[in-house]
Structure formats: C-alpha cells, structure tokens
Amino acid sequence: MKSKNHKEMIPVLMLLFLACFMIYPAGRNLFLFAQTQMVFSFTESFSNNNYKDVVNTTANWNTVTGLVSLISGGSSNIWDTTKPTTTNAPTARANFSAVWTGSKMIVWGGQDSGGFKNNGGVYDPATNTWDTTKPTTTNAPSARGYHRAVWTGSKMIVWGGWNGSSDLNNGGIYDPATDTWDTTKPTTTGAPTARDCFSVVWDSANNKMIIWGGWIDASQSDVNNGGIWTLSTNTWDTTKPTTTGAPSARESHNAVWDSLNNKMLVWGGAWYDVDFEEYSCYNNGGSYNPATNTWDLTKPTSTGAPTARLAHSAVWDSTNNKMIVWGGDDSFDGVGYNNGGFYNPATNTWDLTKPTTTGAPNNTRHDAVYTGTKMIVWGGWSGAAYQNTGAFYIISASEYTTPAIARSLTVDNTPDTINSVILSVSATLPANTTITYEITANSGTNWYQVTPTNDFAIPVVGRASDLRWRANLSTADSQQTPLLDWVTITYSTAAVVTTSNWTALTNGNTPVRMGQSVCHVKFNMKTDFGTAYWKRFRIDKGITGVTTPVPDNKIEVQIWVENNNNGFWDANDILITKGGFVNGVCYLNMRQWQVTTTTKTYYIVYKLAGDIGGGQRAGVKIADSSYLEFENATCVGVQ
User: Fold this and answer.
1) Beta strands in 467-567, from DSSP E residues, in sequence order
2) Which of 362, 384, 394, 533 is most buried (most C-beta within 10 Å)?
C-alpha cells in the first residue's frame, strides 16, 4: 500500500447536514442548489516529498525509509548518571536480579545491610519513577541473593541462589499483569543441584530456560554443568548443556542469549580456590548451541577482550546484535570496574572503546537490562557500601525531540465542497509514544482532530475544497519515537436533497377555532440520487400582529405527505408526524422518513389543541430559524 496514489469516485450518501429554509409569501418559490456526491481516496506514503508541507513540518519525513518520526538528536556512547532516580527506589542492594519487560525494569531479591530480600521494585524509565509495591511479596519465593532471573516475554522467572545458609534449587514465576507469583514452577523435581552465582538465559526460540555453571556450596566447588527447563511441561533436562567441550568451571560469570544465532554466549567469571581462598578471574567463555548440544570455545575470543573479571553485567544489544559487558571486579571485596566492551559474534571481535569510561559509574555485583536503545545499570556494591544508584548508558543517538508535526499540502483533487472524511493510518507506537491526527478542508483555517477509521462529518464552518492532514507526534521517553508509515484519506462531497415550490398558504394571523386544523405551508422535495432520510424538522414559533399569542401547549404541528395527487391537503393524505411547542420550539421526529428521487409534496399543518377564548385570533408563523435536518444528505445553499 505504500507509495500508492489513487483516486476513485463512488456515489454514496454522507452524514448529517442541515438544510435551512424560510417561509415566503404565497407564490414565492424556494430552491436548494443540488450537486452530485462523489467519494475520493488518497494514500500518502513518505517515500517522496510530493505532498509534504515543508514550512510547517517539523517531524522527520524520511524518503529513504518511507517513515515519519521524531527528529533524533543527542550523542551515542554516553552515560547519564542522573537516572534511575533514587526517589522511592528499593533499598540499596547487591546480588539481585533484574529483567526488562519491554517498557519497565523489574528488580527482585538480593542482599542489603539487613540481609537477604524477597522484595524489589518496578522502574519506569519513561517517567523516571519507581513502584516498590511490586513485585508483591505475597506468595513470593523465599528471600535470596546470587540467584538469576529471565523474562519470557510476559513473565519473570526466578531460580536458584543463596539464602545466607544454603543454596537453593527452587524459584517462582512472577506475572506483572496480575502482580502474582506461582512458586510451583520451575519444579524442583529433577532440577539441577542447588547453586548460586550461575548464569541463565531465556531460549526465546524454544521457550526454555538454560542455566549453567556457578558455585555449589554443598560441595564447595565451582561447576560447568547446568540444566534446561521447559516452560510448557515444567520439566528439567540436566543432561544439557553438555559438559563435553564446555568452558572451565566458574562462578559469577554472565551469559546472554544471542537471538540472531540462537546461542548462549558465556563470558568471564572466576574459579574459587578453596585452599587459598582466592579467585582466579577469566576473560574467556564459550558459545553454546542448544540445537546441537555443543560448545564452541573459540567464541567469544579472549583476544582483545576486557580485563578478566567476575560479578559483571552482560546484556544482548538486539539492535546491533552485540553483547555488552560492563563493570564487575577481580574479587568480591574489590572496587568495581567502570569499563567493559562490545563483543560482535559475527566477527568474533571486541571493541573496548565502548562503553566509554567517561562519566561512567563504578558498579560490581549489580545487574543491567537492555531497553532497545540503552543499557540501564542499577544497584550493586561500591567497595564500601550497597548501592541504589545506577545510570543510563546511551548506545545509539536517539534522543528524540518532542513534539513534532508532519503536515501535508493539498491532497484532494475536487473543486466541490468536502463534507466528510475517513482517515486510516499505519503506525508503530512504542510504549509512551502517541500520534494524534487532524484534518482541515479549508486550507488550515479550521483543524479538527479525527480518530482513524471513524467517519468524520466536517462542521459547516470548516467545509471547503482544500483538504490537508497533519499528524502530531510525541513521546514521554526520549529514547522512543512513534513511526508513521502511511496515511489514507477517503473524502466525500455530499448527496443533496432538493426542495422547491415553498408556498405559504396562510398568514400568521389566521383565525382558528378549537380543534380546527389549517394547512400553513406546501412544498415539494426529492433527492438528486439514491435515498436520503428526513430525520427531523425544527419549527420556531413566530407570531406577529396578535394581541394574545397562543400558548405553546395549545398548538399541535403536523407534517403530511400528498397521497392522492389532488394538489391540496385533505384527510386522504398521509400523516407523517406531529408534535407540540416547548419554549417556542417544536421538534418533529420524521421517523427516518425516506426521501427519494421521486418528487413528493408535503404539507405543514397546525391545529389548536384546546380552547383559547371566544373570538380570539390565533396564528403560528414558522420563523426563519426553522430547518429540515437530513441524515445522509445535505444542501449547499439557497437560491
């Protein structure tokens, strides 16, 4: 549908419009100008600038991508240590877990100055706010640290860890949509040996959780085994990952899921020498392929790799298909590093110029998540105290300027008055981004907000023949932009009801007796094509030359249609509707009376509904403010 411009004409009946009329002296004719209705369709793609209003467009109208977006500014490879805010943040802690939901970061568990925790918080980067009422502690897994967590796409899975006295091989599944826990999963039946300081990834291709390595307190040893848990069956397979050809046993390493190649990348960590009570850190790892249950120890390469370390963070940059390693230290008691590197699996190379150390915080035993444009680092240990601070690492230049407008030039090709539009769009709206749409039919004098796919009737004051649209793009997250792909506008000129031969048959002071009916006005009406619906008739009472006007509750107004073609009103004609005045106004419901291409004659009759006093003169004169109201039809003027 992109890059397509077409215009087609289809006769249809349009929305509500008003046809105004006045009562003239007897014999004076009133005509309403009729025009043929057409429907046109215009599709705007952004692979060209043919319809771009250059002067009034402040958004990025990209002819290469064919998209409209906010304008990107700012710099890449920079740190922002003002976020996440510490206001209402969880207590300072280390050895916790963090996952990214697609719009928010969930922090859970860990260790602070008071011990191990089973609480946490939810951080919203769009508003830079924390909610520490979630995740709920009700039915949550037991307090722990040195565990791991993964995000399935809709839920967080927590497993393993250390509670201060023993390792664990249980966990739970947290559903943020309901703020509830299910601790029956992952099952402990057939689970790997309880452990801490291991790595975990979510195999999104197969909906499985892979754990590997870690420290087993019961045997006082680091291991290079693990297990694969299947969500659909709640079962474990501890024969995988294979230990054959696996990296050396280690703990406090990290792993990411390479979603491009469907492999687990393990890097870093340390082996703990129980006898000497010291750590030997690694700057190597391995690539595990679950499809073949095999390891490749040549990747990630140790050539040009960051300094060997443990307790660092690692995230997968799915935009650039790279692993980002950051922070950590060379022992659990050291001061955290403020450096790292980007690993590219496609070339098996490292880039140590990123993340920059300029303005970077020092973190170890922290955790990090990837949002799509940045890495959020939070918490950890400073070498002297637990932390509840962090930073945004801006990976790409995507600080978007908001708001912005995309506005078109004239998109219609009809000289006729445009009365209604239907706007359809194709747009992508990441979290915290919006696009609102407006149209004008009079060159921008009057703009009206419209809802895509809804038929919009343009108010009378805004009707003309110069149709334009504009889109208002905005974001509450400087790292996210809405994307507009194309706009289609279906616009219509209106079908017309023609009325003629309006004849005042009586004046406003005709004497009427109680119960007597008098025909006041006669007129003809038809449509130029098809069927329209006469929805209602408003009559404003206007009485002149009468000493004592007839009260509202004494008058009944009736609408009749000619039935016997004798040219005058009588009892053989058909009564369509009737009603009375309230505060000088009478609304007559026409019951969706059909007006067709066949000319029909109508009569407006009024009748005294009660005695007003002997000898009094009474009259009703239809005021100029009265009107006919049609559905699916309109008129454009009086001649």
Assistant:
1) 468-475, 483-492, 497-504, 517-527, 532-542, 555-561
2) 394
Q: Which residues pair with 72 in a beta bridge?
A: 400
pTM: 0.58
Distances in whole angstroms, Cα of residue 205 to Cα of each of 102, 138, 319, 438: 18, 32, 17, 42
pLDDT of the residue at 634:
52
Q: How confident is the model at residue 42 (pLDDT cuts 50, 70, 90)?
A: confident
Tokens of residue 310, six digits: 């443990």
Tokens of 515: 């119960």
Could you give the CA distance from residue 109 to residue 567 in angstroms, rounded to a whole number? Answer: 90
**Rounded to whole angstroms, how far apart are CA atoms 78 and 321?**
19
Q: Tell me: the pLDDT tens digits for 597-633?
A: 788 998 888 887 665 555 444 556 666 667 777 665 5
Q: Which three-class secondary structure state does DSSP give residue 129?
A: strand
Distance in angstroms (rounded) separating the CA atoms of residues 166 and 219: 11
- As a three-state string, the secondary structure of 412-476 is CCCCCCCCEEEEEEEEECCCCEEEEEEEECECCCCCEEECCCCEEECCHHHCCCECEEEEEEEEC
- Per the listing, tokens 């209604």 go with 420
Residue 491 and residue 423: Cα distance in Å, rounded?
9
How far is it, in rounded angstroms, from Cα 377 to Cα 334?
18
Q: Do residues 313 and 326 touch, judged by C-beta distance below 8 A?
A: yes
User: Rounded mean pLDDT of the chain?
Assistant: 84
* Lowest model confidence (mean pLDDT) among 41-45, 100-104, 161-165: 41-45
Quick one: tokens of 181? 């826990």
